[in-house]
Structures are given as C-alpha cells and as structure tokens.
C-alpha cells in the first residue's frame, strides 16, 4: 500500500480524499494556489505545498510544479480527484515516467476515451449500443448536411474533446447547419485548441443515465448500478439520484453489462463512469466515458455501502476487486450547492461567507470545504458543497432533502439553495417524469 499520496486538486474532493487516506493510515500532501491558502484541505493534510498563483494554468494545471511537489515530499502516488488534470493523458504518463503512481486511468485508456469519436468506435466494437452518427470527424459542412439528411433531423454537432456543453450545437434543419457549424467550431477551437467536429443523431426527450464502474489491474470490472443525472442546465448537472425512477431491473442489468463490456475492452483501471442517453422508449445509447471519479459519487456510496475513493486507492496499489456487482439497497440524492445566483442566470457569487449552518440528522451527509469566514475565490468552479440525503424510498428522499435544504444557511454569498428548495416542491420532478430539457421551462424568477 502507498505510504504517502499527493492530492492534485482542491476544495471538497481534496478533503474527501484526505479523509479516506487518514482512515487507511496513508500520509497526505495537499497542493494549493495562493488563493487557497486558507482552504480546509491545506489545513487537514499532513503536508502542504504552494504550487503557484490563483490562475489554474499556473497552479492546479501546472504539471512541473505538481511533480516537483511530489518529489520533494517523497509522495509515491498522486490522486487527481476530478476536473483539472484528472483526465489528462500526458499527466498520467509523466507520473509513470517519474515512477509515481497515478491513481486513475492509464494514459492509453484516457486517450481512448478522451476523444469522443474514438471512444464511440471503441464502444461500438465492444457491442455497446451507440448513437448513429459520423464515422470520426467531419471533413466539411457539406458532408455534415448530407449525413444529417440521411439520418433525419434533429442532429447535434460535438467537439471530440468537449465537455460542459462547449462545442455542441443542436441542428433541426439544413438551413440552420452553417451557422451552428461555424459557432461550434469557433467555440471548440477556443475552449480545447481543436475545432474538429463530429455529428450524431440528436436523441429527443432523453434521460442522462451513468453507470459507475471499477476496474482493477487484472482485467476485472464490476459495476455499482446507475445514477440519474437528468436535472441539468446547459449540460451542467445540478441534481443526481440513484436508483433512477425510469430504470427497471431489466434495463439496469442490460446497461450494467454494456458498461462492463466497454470498460473491459480497454482494460480499464480505476473508478470511472460509462454515460448513456436513454430515450423515451427505453433504448439506451453510449454517450461518453469519464475516466475519473465523479462529483456525484457519494450517492452511489450511500446506497451500496462502498467507499469508492478507498477502492480507487486499493486498485491503484494492485489489490484485485471481487468482480461482484453492487445494486442499490436504498435511495439517495445529491444537490450541488453552488455559489451562484439562480435568479441572475446562475451568475457566480464569490465572496466571504459570514455565517454558515450545515444540515444534519439521520440520512444527511454534507461534503464541503467551506466554513464561516472562508472567502470563496473567483478563480475556480463555484460548487462549494454537496448535500446528500439517503432514505428507503424516493418520496422519503425528497422530503428529507427539503428538510435539509431548509436547515442549510449561508450568509454572505448567493447560492443555489433556493432553486433546490423550489425543485423539491415541483410536481413534475416529484413524479420522476422529466428529461434533460426539464429546466428549460423552469421558472427561476420567484426564488
């Protein structure tokens, strides 16, 4: 087992990893930018190293600085968390070159799944259902129009290295193609340094369902059931739950087998998710694979009693998994608490937290790195906490979540708590009959 792990991340996920390491008897190293000097992950780690100024490129994305921090502290492994360098193949490869274990996917695995067009072809060969679309990147707008007319509108153009909705455009007719093509190329080039695009059939009224998987170094892969991530705004998830209200035992088994087949095809190592779109007829299609731990992993832990961070570390250390699949025994839901104003188009709201009260009680978990007096920097993602509740039924989860949200008090910055409270009272949400476009018609004005 590792003796010392450096966490190449910040905020609540860094703190989450530190907690598990302490329970496993592993020393930890926190890295931080000057903006995060007062963050809890810096305070609770065994050692801490400043790696640069607030800008991510000069700190949390600065590979030489992170490797240097690992070397001077004699860390024998690096956990990247999520975001930042967690799906960076070059970083994974450099860690290997320096004989520091990267707790995550190998460089080859990240490359195979990082490019969405390549990932789709890999999954197709593994027998996983995929969305109809172009074979690789499009050569021209004319080729895209021809393929779209063959498949039938609507279609969607996507950036191969995309994420968070960037480089994506839905196109409903040939008249709209050129403008959306140009906009997507421009956005993709600016965001990812690659303006290539591929085309897919656009699945209307879909649910976003992901399967949590874990693979070891010996070719074994298991799955830990599904998470429903359909409540999202501009492709950014806001609420996740498990089990999904629309996934039957039969569909769960089919999707689980498909996820295992896809992960096995690339000999996947570590924790990851295989993400699917499920249409209104119950058919599912591969969308992408995330080769890292997910923000929403706690709800899976709550319903399966399975510590995913601990399993990640054990797998990276060469411990085999049992290969047994896990199914939900309870219901769990996560609300992302962001420092944003939902009445102002979710505009970020950085600043100093004057007072805070975290909810508690049976079945309530809060993963957070903030406290009274903490200043939320404007340089990073605005998520400041994850509120997770667990109960014996979806109805109980919603009631408990509402109660917990009412106890969650933050003074000094705007947050998404009022939005989540209103959502818990929404009849359509409570019925479980919604899709990824649900929030497009949601009324944010009276929060």
Quick structural overview:
This protein has 447 residues and is α+β, with helices and mostly antiparallel strands. Helix content is 33%, strand content 26%.
Structure in words:
The protein has 447 residues and is α+β, with helices and mostly antiparallel strands. It folds into three domains: 4-103, Rossmann fold; 132-201, 2-Layer Sandwich (Dna Ligase, domain 1), CATH 3.30.1490.20; 207-441, D-amino Acid Aminotransferase, Chain A, domain 1, CATH 3.30.470.20. Helices cover 33% and strands 26% of the residues. The chain has an eight-stranded antiparallel beta sheet, sandwiched between helices. The chain has a five-stranded parallel beta sheet with strand order 3-2-1-4-5. Strands 7-6-8 form a three-stranded antiparallel beta sheet, covered by helices on one side. The relative contact order is 0.12. The chain is built from 14 helices and 22 strands. The radius of gyration is 21 Å and the shape is globular. Helix 1 (11-23) links the parallel strand 1 (4-7) and strand 2.
